[in-house]
Amino acid sequence: MCVVDPPKFARARKDLEAALKGYRRLNALALGVITDGGLLVTCSCSQQVDAEAFERVLAGAAQDARRRLQILEVRGLRRPPAAARVPRGRYLKCVFARVTDD
Questions:
Q1: Which residue in 2, 43, 45, 94 is the catalytic one?
Q2: What pLDDT, on a 0 to 100 scale, did the predictor assign at position 49?
Q3: Most buried of 17, 35, 38, 101, CB within 10 angstroms?
Q4: pLDDT by residue (tens digit) across 4-56?
Q5: Exposure on the CB side of residue 60, measured as CA atoms within 13 A
Q6: Does the annotation mark 43 as catalytic?
């Protein structure tokens, strides 16, 4: 198992492109050290990076590392029902994935 939990990469909208590249590179490196059948737990706390973009980054990282990812679970911050309309409250993302050889 490898856990990737970096600090916030995108503090503002202008940082988004660099943040996505950083997440991709970091996760590709992590994928390179996980044995076949191992687990990747990877997180993002960048509000600018939504869950869909983060999953696309992981797909790209898997391609770069020539590994296959099976997403097992996606989690985020638990919040009270009243906060459901506030997208910025969903900044925490955590993906659990099985890693296999390509």
A1: 45
A2: 93
A3: 38
A4: 999 999 989 999 999 999 999 999 999 999 999 999 999 999 989 999 999 99
A5: 13
A6: no
What domains, with CATH codes, occur in the chain?
A: 2-101 (3.40.50.150)
Which class for 49: exposed (0-12), middle (13-18), buried (19 or more C-beta within 10 A)? buried
Confidence of residue 102 (pLDDT cuts 50, 70, 90): confident
Residue 80 has pLDDT above 70, yes or no: no
Q: DSSP for 20-75? A: HHHHHHHHHHHHTTSPTT-EEEEEE--TTS-HHHHHHHHHHHHHHHTEEEEEEEEE
This prediction's pTM: 0.87
Residues 68 and 102 sit within 8 Å (Cβ to Cβ)? yes
Gyration radius of the chain's alpha carbons:
14
Distance CA 61, CA 44 (A): 14
